[in-house]
Design the sequence.
């Protein structure tokens, strides 16, 4: 039987560089490999010997799309090592700037990167020619998210105001109040975003993932900035147990390491995991919109992750407004600390999934070792398994269509390849 | 230029980087669709599957050269580009990943990967201009999106971009910031750092950390003396110059001098 081979030399509309290779003999899928060829930048090595206070700024540079996630996980790991707690309005500010990043990153992905797959366009720009009002709505939301990051953090990409212990300067209440009218307008429009996403056509694919995400220890709070690590198969551990629970392995075809649950296998992190395990914790407005969108009972089709992202955008606007309402400028912008030796763990929910940091510090507060596990590295095996199942069920599709659907499958994950510190050319080889 | 009447073509290329600088193009929310109307976006993988064969009127290059394959790819990009502009600290100075230039890259690979042998990498991270002629360099980690719009507009209009080369100090004065070094004794790289960010760090009560790289004629000797006067020890000074523009010549020289 002849070999069939389909290639996409460089995957588009993902952040970073990667390729995919699929080998088929007739209807049998022989191999699916997600190849990440993003040049390694060796962050864990270059952090050695740096001062603990530098970690938020340096690790932000791992990913220009989700720097706040890196800054938050880094700060929390350092604070854990130093034995300090960041609570009250400082913690609220940290959650608020993170809401800005969820909005910015999710709207970029939903409107400009993922929606074109469902509507049959090569890009958001091409989509804008026929769906101008839709794309403009997305850009408005994205801008509101960025504006929130800028007001708290100084700028949208690599904010400068985040530090271990809190912030350099706490914003005045009036600075946040000024954002209200636009955030309120965008919250209204986010209801439209949920309806738009729910109205798309979804390819068939049902998967039984082990879902992994955070669960806030505060009652009734959807996980963003902190919490315990939980899974659909019963994991419930503190961030410090990450290394006992998960492991990373190197594979020859990727510069990103593959993570798995020890002695079990692949797992899924990101919006689907957060939504399925925490949806009772959404705000009433977001929960109602999810129910109207037909996902109130949970989601197992990864193509519907776009609907979950829309619900999370709505939630992030709602939550941001709640946090601004309750904001009172703290007396000090940060909790004071003294360097000391120790080990610290930090974990938060980047828009695309769990982001874990661990640092070992010497007595002068210098970094002795660093371990960073980004979401895309954790999701790689699940992406390959999705592709395997999708291709096996759709081998009759012509090469072009199969290639396009495979790319869409990968984009379900909003993979951030540059942040797989350690992503996409698509090749389908039919034997 | 493209054929008369045709839209000029814009290409965006990525080398070793965080994607933040090309994201700055997508962060031009108010101008993005207008820009997409004025130019043909011929190659921009982060945003589009569609690719158009070169040559391109303007190429924006993000990222540094860190692998043998990328050292060859930048030559192809240059050949396909009428004008080539590098964007961001990685492309203009080697980026944070240029910290390997001061260390042994094999140690670096071994610290991250169980099988470093699978990893193809160069011993150094180098700016694009070390490999091919560059028509304009836009600094910053990340670049400022309004400066990016100015640079793209200038090249489309066939004029020189209006991007100031003075230091962050000038931006601080314009913004009316109190000098954090004079008033609070906070270490600040503002006097030697290229303007463009809008002096955001001092505006947030922190010292500049040099993410836009060295200004045109930085007096790092003088600044190093002042920083020592504020209590900075040698390792602090070396680290201060060795961040996102560690391999920019003026900062590299300053860190080496401070470390002697």
Sequence:
């Amino acid at each position: 039987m002849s070999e069939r081979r389909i290639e996409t030399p460089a995957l588009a509309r993902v952040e970073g560089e990667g390729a995919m290779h699929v080998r088929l003999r007739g209807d049998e899928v022989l191999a699916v490999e997600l190849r990440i060829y993003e040049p390694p930048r060796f962050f864990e090595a270059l952090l050695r010997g740096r001062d603990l206070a530098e970690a938020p700024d340096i690790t932000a540079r791992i990913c220009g799309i989700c720097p706040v996630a890196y800054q938050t996980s880094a700060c929390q790991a350092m604070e854990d090592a130093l034995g300090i707690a960041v609570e009250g309005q400082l913690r609220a500010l940290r959650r608020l700037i993170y809401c800005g990043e969820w909005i910015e990153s999710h709207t970029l992905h939903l409107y400009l990167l993922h929606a074109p797959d469902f509507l049959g366009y090569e890009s958001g720009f091409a989509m804008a020619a026929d769906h101008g009002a839709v794309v403009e709505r997305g850009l408005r939301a994205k801008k509101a998210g960025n504006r929130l990051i800028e007001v708290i953090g100084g700028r949208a990409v690599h904010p400068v105001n985040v530090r271990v212990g809190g912030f350099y300067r706490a914003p005045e209440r009036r600075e946040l109040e000024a954002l209200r009218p636009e955030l309120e307008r965008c919250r209204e429009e986010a209801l439209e975003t949920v309806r738009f996403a729910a109205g798309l056509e979804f390819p068939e694919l049902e998967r039984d993932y082990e879902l992994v995400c955070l669960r806030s220890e505060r009652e009734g709070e959807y996980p963003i900035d902190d919490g315990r690590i939980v899974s659909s198969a019963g994991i419930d551990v503190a961030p410090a147990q990450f290394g006992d629970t998960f492991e990373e392995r190197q594979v020859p075809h990727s510069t990103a390491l593959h993570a798995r649950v020890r002695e079990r296998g692949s797992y899924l992190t990101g919006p689907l995991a957060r939504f399925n395990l925490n949806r009772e914790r959404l705000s009433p407005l977001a929960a109602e919109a999810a129910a109207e969108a037909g996902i109130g009972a949970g989601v197992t089709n990864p193509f519907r992750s776009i609907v979950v992202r829309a619900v999370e955008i709505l939630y992030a606007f709602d939550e941001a407004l709640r946090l601004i309402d309750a904001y009172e400028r703290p007396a000090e912008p940060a909790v004071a600390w003294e360097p000391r030796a120790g080990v610290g763990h930090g974990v938060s929910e980047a828009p695309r999934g769990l982001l874990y940091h661990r640092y070992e510090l010497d007595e002068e507060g210098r970094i002795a070792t660093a371990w960073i596990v980004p979401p895309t590295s954790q999701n790689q095996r699940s992406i390959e398994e999705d592709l395997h199942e999708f291709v096996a069920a759709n081998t009759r599709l012509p090469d072009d269509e199969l290639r396009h659907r495979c790319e869409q499958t990968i984009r379900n994950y909003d993979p951030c390849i540059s942040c797989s510190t350690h992503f996409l050319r698509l090749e389908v080889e039919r034997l | 230029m493209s054929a008369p009447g045709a839209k000029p073509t814009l290409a965006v290329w990525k080398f070793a980087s965080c994607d933040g600088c090309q994201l700055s193009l997508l962060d031009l929310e108010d101008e993005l669709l207008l820009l997409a109307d004025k130019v043909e976006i011929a190659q921009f993988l982060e945003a589009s599957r569609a690719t158009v064969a070169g040559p391109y009127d303007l190429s924006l290059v993000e990222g540094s050269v860190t692998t043998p394959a990328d050292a060859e790819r930048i030559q192809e990009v240059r050949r396909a580009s009428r004008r080539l502009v590098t964007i961001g600290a990685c492309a203009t100075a080697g980026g944070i990943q240029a910290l390997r230039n001061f260390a042994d890259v094999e140690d670096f690979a071994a610290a991250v990967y169980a099988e470093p042998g699978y990893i193809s990498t160069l011993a150094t991270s180098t700016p694009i201009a070390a490999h091919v002629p560059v028509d304009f360099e836009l600094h910053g980690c990340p670049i400022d999106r309004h400066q990016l719009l100015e640079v793209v507009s200038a090249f489309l209009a066939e004029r020189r971009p209006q991007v100031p080369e003075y230091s962050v100090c000038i931006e601080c004065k314009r913004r009316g910031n109190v000098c954090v070094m004079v008033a609070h004794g906070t270490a600040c790289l503002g006097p030697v750092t290229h303007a463009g960010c809008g002096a955001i760090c001092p505006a947030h009560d922190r010292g500049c950390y040099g993410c836009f790289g060295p200004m045109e004629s930085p007096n790092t000797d003088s600044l190093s003396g002042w920083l020592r006067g504020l209590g900075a020890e040698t390792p602090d000074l070396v680290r201060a110059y060795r961040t996102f523009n560690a391999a920019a010549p003026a900062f590299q020289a300053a860190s080496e001098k401070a470390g002697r």
Chain B has a mean pLDDT of 93. Chain B touches chain A through 63 residues (CB under 8 Å). The CA atoms of residues 19 and 96 of chain B lie 13 Å apart.
